[in-house]
Design a protein that fits this description.
12 helices; binds zinc ion; 35% helix; nine-stranded mixed beta sheet; four-stranded antiparallel beta sheet; 2 domains; 22% strand; alpha/beta; Aminopeptidase
Amino acid sequence: MPNYSQIRVNGKRLWDSLMRMAEVGKTAGGGCNRQALTHEDKIGRDLFCEWCKSAGCEVRTDKVGNIFARRPGFIAERSPILFGSHLDTQPTGGKFDGVYGVLAGLEVIRTLNDAELGTLGPIEVVSWTNEEGSRFSPAMAGSGAWSGKISLDDILDQKDLHGISFQDELDRIGYSGAAPARAFPVRAALEVHIEQGPILEKEDVQIGVVTGVQGMRWYDIKIIGISAHAGTTPMSGRNDAVITLSKVISGFTEELFQFGEAARATFSSLRSEPLSRNTVQSVASASLDIRHPNDEELDRMEKILRLRLNEFSKLNGTKSSLTRLSKTESTMFSEFCLSAIKKATESLGYKQREMISGAVHDSVYVSRSCPAAMIFVPCLRGVSHNESESALPGDLTAGCNVLLQTILRLDRQFQ
Ligand SMILES: [Zn+2]
């Protein structure tokens, strides 16, 4: 009987694969530009498929371009354990966001091959199409279509800024596959990813056990006041839209503490009219992004925002409107997967902590179809979506070992 618990990944090979993939779409600033369905994306996909085939995997692509590479198990009819992430990047992205999860998955398969170890059920590494959403909207298109949360036709009809369609680009790069873009039975799904935040590095913890993902809501705020002469209108007699907006921003931000450490509110795209410095502004608008791991708290945040908008508008003699543009529900990951991750991490002797992800990932959609969870590793200063994004080889190896040992546990465990 082989000793599964002693087996470890090859950290150097994982690092070399990451650096080789980083050559594809390499930017002058040391990052990567491998946006979805571009020529660079095609080259990256080709490289990944070639590596998977050399590792003996059966590779298939579905109609939205998701790539699945399967290593068969002893029991063919068992549902696979699925693990991976995305190969596409932001226009000025880094070398690790997404690609780490995909290549860590490949490293798990290579490691099992080296050790000549089989698994009971099949295991599959996946690369989801267009996670970033920077070229084609929406983000997480591949996992969204797979889980049935986004319509495949809507995705394929999307056009980029130059009017080129998703379907045409998928055909052009040769990744419009034959498999249906639909969820199949999966025993458990795992995604290992850099944290993209500063907590693990700050606390000197190697493994983040991600128990859930924040819910997120987007709003447009508009304040309507009355334009007036900047010199002749007394301060007390103004209906200044900018003043109302600034009070709402500072008032709401100050009240956030009551929602705990996990609450987030980000105001952006501030604008005002008319474009004149000696006129009291009649229109002020802003965008707002709020996040929290609990949907009820998000409801409460929205309620307070509306109250403050009405209150400050009344005080200032302005009118206000709040438009909700989108609502992404929060996610709690599967206990079946989380307990396996915790035990695997413990057996490997790495420091771990539970955490909530502030960023949305493919696993959010995947978790709607099967038991899923995520593993985080630290990244330098928490910087991501940036060419300087960086992570230590030792931490990347640790995350990959946790992935491997979690897969081996889940494979042998009864659900
Ligand atoms: Zn990512």
